Amino acid sequence: MSQSVSSQRNSLRYRSRLLQPEAERRPDTHPLTWRLRDDGEVVWLEEYLRKDGYQSVRKALDEGDPQAIIATMKEANVRGRGGAGFSAGLKWSLTLQGGEMPRGYMICNADEMEPGTFKDRLLMEQQPHLLIEGMILGALANNSFYGYVFLRGEYVESARVLNRALEEARKAGWLGADINGSGFDFDIAVHTGAGRYICGEETALINSLEGRRANPRAKPPFPGQSGAWGKPSVVNNVETLCNVPAVILNGADWYQALSGDRTDDGGSKLYGISGPVEKPGLWELPMGTTGGEILDRAGGMRGNRQLKAWLPGGASTGFLLPEHLDLPLDFDTVGKEGSRLGTGLLAMAPQEQSMVALMRNLEEFFARESCGWCTPCRDGLPWTVKLLRALELGQGETGDIELLDKLAADCGPGLTFCAHAPGAAMPLQTALKHFRHEFEQGVSKPRGKAHQDPIPVGEV
């Protein structure tokens, strides 16, 4: 192995490390991580089976009632862990099946390209059979005959581990024809993407999977009615699917009780933190854990820095302030504060961080990753970058900040084909709300002709 690849793998492992030792993780409280090893090595099939692996599949096959799986998921209210927070059970209940409907596809969205997010990599690289088990259960519930793990192309180690685990599962009879003697057929393939953030949107992902340009589709029809190759398809995030085995094995009431009285959202969550903190990493904690508790687990800000602002769940969520650290991190509470829980991985900005420079960096990413399918995103995001660059250099003009307000509003929900542009707008809107004075400091001259023409997306 070359030194550069070795260094890359070491870096990826460091950024995905779980900071809870085995002694703190139990099957009844940590369904996602209790099987993980302290040494970070992969939990292969033999060890996974010793730790109750595939018991939920065995139970579901014995009961032979796909609708019972969906009912349990709805009752448990397993909300999507990829960022949207939509009920997985409700999504499954909307999949067309039965009668003359063809069997469809179960698709795992493993295109983890949200800046500041690194939780799914941990699950895939260290516990691949949990994801496979969750996909089998999803296939049973949704009458799927084949599954795909749509994997971020840079996750070379994840691909290696998943492909070996899939081969183990086939040889043991957990994938392929007649799974566990039940008459149910299902198999999975890993599909590595070409490196586009837009593939995190489920219909753009499906287009890419089919070999098409990764543009989002107009909806309806939704993938549950007509998805991959025109067949009913379900797309769920890695962490979402990894919750399914424990829910089916232990029941909805057990899952709801995991969060205690912190929130109405049940279950546990892989929370994480990055930025200038003492111990960046991941923890499995009850849903509704506060940002302050996560920051404390990370040892606080590094080098006596003071916290200025933080993103609660990746780059496409809105900025919160230090006074929001006491809020329970669940979907509805964070939403009421003008942000989103997103992926639940906190990104911390210290007091000395320029918010204009930070926003310029984020918006450059969003502008570059736009598929260009709709005007507010294709043209609005490059305009935003141009204005932020000028403000960062102290060369902004009168009216630039008001124009940023308008561009962000034009990228809002319901005005574009997908959530890419609204995701880009949210951090900008909240940065302008909380730190407008920093943007105003970049205005140095009256309005001129400097910003008449937007820069092409390719130059961002």
UniProtKB/TrEMBL annotation:
Cofactor: [4Fe-4S] cluster; FMN
GO MF entry, a single one: NADH dehydrogenase (quinone) (non-electrogenic) activity
Taxonomic lineage: Bacteria, Pseudomonadati, Pseudomonadota, Gammaproteobacteria, Pseudomonadales
Highest taxon above the source species: Bacteria
Gene3D superfamilies: 3.10.20.600, 6.10.250.1450, NADH-ubiquinone oxidoreductase 51kDa subunit, NADH-ubiquinone oxidoreductase 51kDa subunit, iron-sulphur binding domain
Keywords: 4Fe-4S, Flavoprotein, FMN, Iron, Iron-sulfur, Metal-binding, NAD, Oxidoreductase, Quinone, Translocase
Catalysed conversion reaction: a quinone + NADH + 5 H(+)(in) = a quinol + NAD(+) + 4 H(+)(out)
Record flagged with keyword Translocase: yes
This protein's record includes keyword Glycosyltransferase: no
Natural source organism: Marinobacter iranensis
Biased composition (Polar residues): 1-13
Stretches the record annotates as Disordered: 1-25, 441-460
Secretion signal, residue range per the UniProt entry: none
Task of the protein: NDH-1 shuttles electrons from NADH, via FMN and iron-sulfur (Fe-S) centers, to quinones in the respiratory chain.
Family stated for the protein in its record: Belongs to the complex I 51 kDa subunit family.
Residue ranges constituting the NADH-ubiquinone oxidoreductase 51kDa subunit iron-sulphur binding domain according to the UniProt record: 356-401
Enzyme Commission number(s) from the entry: 7.1.1.-
SMART domains found in the cross-reference section: NADH_4Fe-4S
InterPro entries: NADH-UbQ_OxRdtase_51kDa_CS, NADH-UbQ_OxRdtase_suF, Nuo51_FMN-bd, Nuo51_FMN-bd_sf, Nuop51_4Fe4S-bd, Nuop51_4Fe4S-bd_sf, Soluble_ligand-bd
Name of protein: NADH-quinone oxidoreductase subunit F
Pfam families to which the protein is assigned, alphabetical: Complex1_51K, NADH_4Fe-4S, SLBB
